[in-house]
Amino acid sequence: MAALDLENQWVTVIILFKVKEGQQAAVIEQVQELFAIAKHQPGFVSANLHRSLDGLKVANYAQWENETALENFRQLPNVQARVAPLQELVEEMDSHLYEIVASESKVGVPQIRAGEYFVHFAEFRMPVDNQPRMVELAKEHVGPAMSLEGLVSANFHRSLDGERVINYGQWENEDAITKLTQRPGFGKKDGYWTGLAENEFHLYEVVQTEPNHP
Predict the structure, then answer these.
(1) 97 with 192: CB under 8 angstroms?
(2) Is residue 22 part of a domain?
(3) Which of 63, 78, 97, 139 has its Cβ near the most Cβ atoms within 10 Å?
(4) Number of domains forming the structure of the chain
(5) 139 φ/ψ sector (left φ>0, alpha ψ -120 to 50, else beta)
(6) pLDDT of residue 175
(7) Which domain range does residue 176 map to?
(8) Rama region for 144: left / alpha / beta (φ>0; ψ in -120 to 50; rest)
(9) What is the rounded CA–CA span in Å between residue 4 and residue 115?
(10) What is the predicted pLDDT for the residue at 206?
(11) What is the rounded average pLDDT for all residues in the chain?
């Protein structure tokens, strides 16, 4: 299973699919076919499939031993053959490599397990020059956010290309996330990221996890 910690032992790739209307289930099925290939490949560590509760998104949080292993998987003919039909089902496929830059947890090192928590992907998109300041602010806010009832862990990731910051948060229940958006500095209009990044967030459930195949 995936462990989220500041050691960044593995290469992390987060792929966010904005699905076409009514196509979430079909996208999940296509990604599951890719999981079936990935889990047998050298260097594979884990893949974790999420579906947004609003039906608009699908997310894959995956870990590989190194970038070479990830790229070798992507170049497999049977993988490339499945990418084209997948792209027909989505409006956007946003894929970046990430490292964790801030992590707070009430349960030790956070792990991803199917059906255990609700997950909050907060997607921050920004000009490259803004990412360092965005990371600084994320580090300042992650600690205070943990006082919220129901928040289990908050894990800020920065994309290696400088274009994204993602907060992967784990929650005990659906209602708890509402309290975060009502907290000063976390709302859509008064967010600490205002002027630095555009923010979009969705609540997800983990529907499948794939560890390394023995």
Answers:
(1) no
(2) yes
(3) 63
(4) 1
(5) alpha
(6) 81
(7) 11-211
(8) alpha
(9) 17
(10) 97
(11) 93
| Residue 57's CATH number | 3.30.70.100
The model's pLDDT over 82-138, given as tens digits with 9 standing for 90+, comes to: 999 999 999 999 999 999 999 999 999 999 999 999 999 999 999 999 999 999 999
d(CA 126, CA 136): 14
Does 153 have pLDDT greater than 80?
yes
For residue 168, list its beta bridge partners: 121, 155
Rounded-to-integer distance, Cα 7 and Cα 19, Å: 32
Whether residue 77 is contained in a domain is answered as yes
